[in-house]
Design goal:
This protein has 757 residues and is of the alpha/beta class. It has a domain at 386-482 and 520-670. 46% of the residues lie in helices and 8% in strands. The strands form 5 sheets. A 5-stranded mixed beta sheet has the order 3-4-5-12-11. Helix 5 packs antiparallel against helix 6 and helix 11 crosses helix 25 (687-701). It is globular and about 85 Å long.
């Protein structure tokens, strides 16, 4: 069969979610909370129960098999297999556990991990079991021994699942009439039988084991586990496959990555459907400094032209020694409307990470979490220690001031004292949490419980100050509120085993067990703050048209009765137009915040890494009151460093120049610039070359990250009227992408407004 034909069949079946027929609701009788073992071991047994008993599914023409089939209930659960809740594990927390801890964090995970799947690809499941037993001989603490047992229990379950798939494939082969498919099913059975115990020996085995490992991490995390540097992970297993064969295998694997996308969120005000949104990283230098582009890199880009889906997200690392085809192939996909691709200046990111204190090998090995947050797959879990919201602190500062400052500089100084004070407080609160966890690991548990009782740490918010980054929460059921935190009550045996340092130390990744102890810090709500400060500087302090008290009154009234004032403020200079009037203070704010962040070390000896970040523009905007640049309460805010909607008065190049004024060495975690382009701009035959040239020019300026959208605005508007004609229209909202027609109307409207100045 021609690989394009196979991928077309798989794509159609994936888009129709044919695999959903195998899904079941988590049986009520499945529970492990009554077992006479530790909480951690009961969690592992809960995972194993799913792996032992989950329904199997092998779809038409699949070469990579396996899909998650056990889900939880929602208020709408019934015959609709897309209304399941992805948070689903047999109950494992006992009443005694809740009494002991004083809270209940069953099934809580922050996710946002990027494991190193090569750990198990290289040694196999039997190998990881042997390694675990060997390390357990060195463990002295009871918690360490329990951790080792969780890994043994979990991988025994995974071994069982893969064996079940081997038997199932052989059964299907016996019943299959068509000879070629019969042989393919037999081969799938042989592959599964091999990888149920042994290391991957070729590319098909590596991809299949990779996918089973990924399924295991998703089952224990529920969501937001990323694929890491997949081209580096899989390249060692190439054995003379043709280009078409590589493209077929990568296409089969990437279509598997889309198999939760039909799930409907219980809170439909968010994104309509569950955004699986998991990230692969391609390109970039290897740990030894040589360029990492290879045949898998090229095959992934070739397969994307056939799959053409919003997920997986693809992060392209482009360095000065990268082959020309990397940027050109990626650019071609972008100008064709594949708005799930982002571009990164590899040279600057590596330099920034190394300058911040990471080893050069780790700095070269970076990948991405969910919203393009930089981390080191399998070595560094950078999400997340603390944050400060620049826009919220500006409103707090206005509320605090009773006497009008003499001038703008005095006001700016008061504001920055508040920003930096909040940042220091939040960093210290995180450090208190990590210190208490590290003491808990040593057996000094009183420290943790004393900190909880005293309020020194908040068990529901160990990462303080990032609430507005988590605006998209499921509020339809408080019992299933998504906290996105690490907790002592929800260990992750699979994820931990795929992080260097956890097995060696006998410490779960949720307890800071991985080898790299660095954390990321979010500087949130930047552009609204930049624009508001510039507006106040011009209209209040320089032109003296209004006082701060009058602006505060207008904000409380949400501009009702103050439209003239709002127009003056809205028409003040704005970020993203290469105007030093705005950009100079923006640079000062970020630099001062990053300097404070750099002063702190984690208790485990890691660094706090700086990142400017603002996801969820509509959701976060809903909770933000009116702001001094002229924005109404509840309206969307910009994505990270992108111009505010309606304020880009010049070209994309000028926006790039504004962002490039930020010193790349300050920003090790996130610094996205998202810009919108009309597809007609790149509609000629040389469109990909033009777009590639734009990326090169941005990198030459000193730009770090660029997430583009290339769309036909008329199609967006028509899609709101005739959605049935635009099922494959993909847009990027922030660090995540989606089919435009699947989104709620207000999300669609916000995206369209990005094109209207």
């Amino acid at each position: 069969m021609n690989y394009k034909h196979r991928l077309a069949i798989l794509r159609a079946n994936t888009r129709e979610s044919v695999h959903a027929q195998a899904r079941i609701l988590l049986p009520e009788e499945w529970e492990t909370k009554t077992l006479s073992v530790s909480l951690a071991e009961r969690k592992a047994e809960a995972i194993k129960k799913i792996l032992d008993h989950m329904p199997l599914y092998i779809g038409e023409q699949e070469l990579i098999v396996g899909t998650r089939t056990v889900y939880g209930s929602t208020p709408e659960t019934g015959q609709n297999m897309s209304c399941f809740d992805y948070v689903a594990l047999p109950p494992y927390v006992s009443e005694e556990d809740v009494t002991y801890f004083g809270f209940n964090h069953e099934n809580v995970t922050k996710a946002h991990y990027a494991p190193d799947f090569s750990i198990v690809l290289e040694c196999g499941i039997d190998g990881i079991l042997q390694r675990t037993r060997k390390f357990m001989e060195t463990y002295t603490l009871q918690d360490q021994k329990e951790f080792g047992n969780t890994v043994l229990i979990a991988y025994t379950g995974l071994k069982n699942l893969i064996t079940h798939y081997s038997d199932y494939a052989q059964q299907l082969a016996e019943a299959e009439k068509e000879e070629k498919r019969k042989e393919e099913l037999r081969e799938i059975g042989i592959i599964c039988k091999h990888i149920a115990s042994k290391p991957a020996g070729n590319l098909r085995e590596a991809c299949q084991l990779f996918w089973f490992l990924y399924m295991a991490t998703i089952i224990e995390n529920f969501q937001f586990v990323n694929y890491g540097r997949i081209d580096q992970t899989l390249a060692p297993y190439i054995q003379g496959e043709t280009d078409d064969e590589l493209t077929e295998i990568m296409g089969c694997l990437m279509l598997k990555m889309y198999d939760q996308y039909d799930l409907i969120l219980a809170d439909k005000s968010l994104m309509g459907k569950f955004s699986a949104q998991h990230n692969i990283t391609i390109g970039g230098v290897k740990r030894d400094g040589s360029d990492g582009c290879n045949r898998i890199t090229k095959a992934i880009l070739a397969a994307l032209r056939e799959t053409r889906l919003p997920d997986p997200l693809v992060s392209v690392r482009v360095n000065s020694n990268a082959p020309d085809w990397l940027l050109l192939m990626s650019a071609r996909l972008s100008v064709e409307g594949m708005n799930c691709i982002a571009f990164y200046n590899d040279d600057l990111v590596v330099d920034s990470l190394h300058h911040a204190g990471l080893t050069i090998e780790d700095a070269r090995d970076y990948g991405f979490g969910l919203c393009q947050d930089i981390l080191i797959p399998g070595r560094g879990d950078h999400y997340c220690s603390a944050g400060v919201n620049l826009s919220v602190k500006l409103l707090d500062t206005l509320e605090q001031i009773e006497t009008e400052p003499a001038d703008y500089q005095e006001f700016f100084n008061i504001y920055m004292e508040n920003v930096l004070g909040e940042l220091r407080k939040n960093l210290q609160r995180y450090n208190d949490w990590e210190y208490a966890i590290l003491e808990y690991n040593k057996g000094n548990r009183d420290v943790f419980f004393d900190y909880v009782k005293s309020g020194r740490i908040n068990v529901d918010e160990p990462f303080p100050g990032i609430g507005s980054a988590q605006a998209a929460t499921n509020n339809s059921d408080d019992s299933k509120k998504e906290l996105y935190i690490q907790t002592l009550m929800s260990p992750l045996p699979f994820t931990s085993s795929l992080y260097h340092g956890c097995l060696e130390s006998g410490v779960d990744v949720t307890r800071c067990g991985c080898i790299n102890r660095d954390r990321g810090v979010m500087i949130l709500g930047p552009v609204v703050a930049f624009n508001s400060l510039a507006a106040l500087k011009k209209v209040v302090f320089e032109e003296r048209r209004y006082t701060l008290a009058e602006v505060k009154a207008a904000l409380k009234a949400n501009w009702n009765g103050y439209e003239k004032m709002r127009q003056y403020l809205w028409n003040a200079p704005k970020w993203g137009n290469n105007e030093d009037y705005v950009d100079r203070d923006a640079v000062r704010i970020v630099e001062m915040a990053c300097q404070v962040i750099g002063e702190y070390k984690t208790p485990g000896g890691g660094n706090h890494l700086s990142g400017v970040h603002q996801p969820h523009p509509v959701f976060a905007g809903r909770t933000l009151p009116a702001t001094p640049e002229g924005r109404f309460a509840g309206t969307p805010i910009p994505v990270t460093l992108s111009p505010e909607n309606g304020t880009l008065k010049k070209s994309a190049a000028e926006a790039m120049k504004s962002v490039s004024k930020l010193n790349s060495r300050w920003l090790q975690w996130n610094s996205c610039l998202m810009l919108q382009y009309y597809s007609s701009t790149f509609g000629e035959a040389d469109g990909p070359e033009k777009f590639a040239g734009l990326i090169k020019a941005y990198h030459k300026l000193g730009g770090i990250q660029h997430q583009p959208n290339v769309v036909d605005i008329s199609q967006l508007k028509d899609a709101q009227v005739h959605p049935e004609n635009y099922k494959d229209l993909t847009i990027r909202m922030w660090g995540v992408s989606a089919h435009f027609v699947d989104l709620p109307r207000d999300i669609q409207d916000e995206f369209i407004s990005r094109y209207e100045n």
